[in-house]
Amino acid sequence: MSVLARLLRPPVLLHLPRTRLFSHAPPLHATPLPSTHQAPPQQPTKIPLRLSAQEEDAMVERIAASILARVDAQLAEWDAATKIKLKSIEEQIRWLEQEGYLRDGFSL
After folding, report:
1. Is residue 7 part of a domain?
2. Count of domains in the chain?
């Protein structure tokens, strides 16, 4: 067989029967084709290049309200933690007073 005939010959692997190694793979004709009945692609939302004064004010108010809500929540969390720590410190000072570890003149 000539060199050109060997190069044009299909690979030997295509003619081999399925082995146990590939027995789990589905046959090529069983591969589902993509559905042609898909929903049409959604149009991207159009964002105006310029906002009206009212739209801009409303957007600024929404952003500010969101930021203020987060700040208020964080302050409330810190306030609660501070009150717990303050109460703990007050209880420790009272215990020190009762045990006589604090001198006269120092009290809450």
Report:
1. no
2. 1
Domain assignment of residue 4, yes or no = no
pLDDT tens for each residue of 27-76: 555 555 555 556 666 776 676 678 788 988 999 999 999 999 999 999 99
CA separation for the pair 76, 71 (Å, rounded): 9
> 64 is in which domain, residue-wise?
53-108
Burial grade of 93 (CB within 10 A; 0-12, 13-18, 19 or more): middle
* Secondary structure element (H or E) that encloses residue 30, with its range: none
Distance CA 51, CA 28 (A): 54
Is residue 31 situated within a structural domain?
A: no
DSSP codes of every residue in 35-63: PS-PPPPPPPPP--SS--HHHHHHHHHHH
List Cα–Cα distances, 59 to 26, 49, 52, 77, 82, in angstroms: 55, 14, 11, 27, 34
Q: Establish if 32 belongs to a structural domain.
A: no
